[in-house]
């Protein structure tokens, strides 16, 4: 964020500390943030609504608490945005679709927003996404395609692309996204951020427009691990526990060693050269079952709206939802039964390990003009296949922390640190060690890459 008379810290922790101590007013944080969004956000196509009135009111509330000698909370005055499927009181929850642009407004905030507000954070924007979160690219028929701050000609990933882009661009210190099959980890990898998909159900889903409830989770994007832990503590309503014992590592093999960038293979092997190469069986079948369950649950959810207003959907989303709505119930039940048995087998396989290392995406950000990626030697739609390494992990309900490899001067690329159910503490502990040794960390976009567009500088 760009400061005015005072320098505004860019990290969540430093900014909150400045506001809590009285060194900086929340209002003095919000005004330059709003100005920055107005001046710089346009080329990213990442913001759907700027909530100026609400942001100023929340900042004034934080300032009043500080003036009264009260602690406004661990996120005091920190501006943030949310993917456009979180309920925001007084606004329609669009889920990225024109179909709900004029829907009745939400009567209360989503539970995650309630917790963040209680901790002093200030909501300033809603953020672009794939319609109904169905895609890995944030190609939105109504709002446009979100661009990557590292190169505006490339995708930011999805479906939480707007949430990733504003943080990677330095417009907001953190944001919230959702992840059904990789929709936090994919954009985190492509824009060079930390992003977490928690153990299924570990973070509050109340007031979040569903895609496929068997898989849906929410999580934050941040530019440092410490900031991630601070936001996690608020959302989870409990601090991350320290990990005292050594973290036991394994590298994922099989399909996780195919369709990835050579730099990812090299990084994984350099991080843990002695760690066993663990092959999770039937990954392709697990991913197919995940596609089936996602399509079926999404199709059932949207069946009434499809019957009423099918032509108001993005055609690509509509066709996939219609296909899902037509899937036989017996096939869905078979996929869920396979999921239960498969999860039990995999949990037994990984029982002796705390962190599994894997790629987050198969490549760097594809070009918007040709949104395809190479999968198994053939070109495939990025919108469907950027989640090739994340989808099976969601299928298992495991927590996964996307971490950015340190790659100055090159397009971002991330890894997944995958844990056992409830094992987020081990992921944070191991990521901290990697960050301290310089293996991972956020690289700021080059100014010319971020803001040069046709016709000159924004």
UniProtKB/TrEMBL annotation:
Pfam families according to UniProt: Amidase
Protein name: AtzE family amidohydrolase
The organism's place on the tree of life at top rank: Bacteria
Entry-linked InterPro entries: Amidase (IPR000120), Amidase_dom (IPR023631), AS_sf (IPR036928), Carboxybiuret_hydro_AtzE (IPR014087)
Domain (Amidase) ranges: 28-237, 312-427
């Amino acid at each position: 964020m760009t400061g005015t008379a005072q320098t505004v810290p860019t990290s969540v922790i430093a900014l909150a500390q400045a506001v809590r101590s009285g060194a900086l007013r929340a209002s003095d944080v919000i005004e330059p943030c709003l100005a920055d969004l107005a001046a710089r956000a346009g080329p990213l196509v990442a913001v759907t609504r700027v909530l100026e009135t609400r942001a100023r009111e929340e900042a004034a509330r934080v300032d009043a608490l500080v003036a009264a000698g009260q602690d406004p909370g661990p996120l005091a005055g920190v501006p943030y945005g949310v993917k456009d499927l979180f309920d925001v009181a007084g606004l329609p929850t669009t889920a990225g679709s024109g179909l709900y642009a004029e829907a009745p407004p939400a009567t209360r905030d989503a539970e995650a927003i309630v917790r963040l507000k209680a901790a002093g954070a200030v909501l300033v924007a809603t953020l672009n996404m794939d319609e109904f979160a169905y895609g890995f690219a944030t190609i939105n028929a109504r709002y446009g395609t979100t661009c990557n701050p590292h190169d505006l000609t490339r995708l930011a990933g999805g479906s939480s692309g707007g949430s990733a882009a504003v943080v990677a661009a330095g417009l907001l210190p953190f944001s919230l996204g959702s992840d059904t099959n990789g929709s936090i980890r994919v954009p985190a990898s492509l824009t060079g951020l930390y992003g977490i998909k928690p153990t299924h159900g570990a973070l509050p889903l109340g007031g979040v427009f569903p895609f496929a409830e068997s898989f849906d989770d929410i999580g934050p994007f941040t530019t440092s691990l410490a900031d991630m832990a601070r936001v996690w503590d608020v959302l989870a309503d409990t601090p991350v526990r320290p990990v005292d014992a050594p973290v036991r590592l394994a590298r994922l093999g099989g399909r996780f060693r195919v369709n990835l960038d050579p730099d990812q293979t090299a990084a994984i092997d350099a991080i843990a050269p002695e760690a066993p190469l663990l092959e999770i069986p039937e990954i392709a079948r697990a991913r197919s079952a995940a596609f089936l369950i996602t399509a079926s649950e999404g199709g059932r959810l949207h069946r009434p709206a499809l019957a009423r207003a099918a032509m108001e959907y993005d055609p690509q989303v509509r066709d996939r939802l219609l296909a899902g709505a037509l899937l036989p119930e017996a096939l869905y039940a078979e996929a869920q039964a396979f999921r239960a048995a498969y999860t039990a087998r995999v949990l037994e396989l990984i029982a002796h390990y705390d962190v599994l290392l894997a790629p987050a995406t198969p490549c760097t950000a594809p070009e918007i003009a040709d949104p395809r990626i190479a999968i198994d030697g053939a070109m495939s739609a990025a919108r469907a296949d950027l989640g090739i390494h994340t989808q099976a992990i969601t299928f298992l309900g495991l927590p996964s922390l996307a971490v950015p490899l340190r790659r100055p001067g090159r397009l971002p690329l991330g890894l997944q640190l995958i844990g056992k159910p409830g094992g987020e503490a081990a992921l944070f502990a191991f990521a901290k060690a990697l960050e301290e040794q310089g293996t991972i960390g956020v690289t700021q976009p080059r100014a010319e890459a971020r803001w040069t567009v046709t016709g000159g500088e924004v």
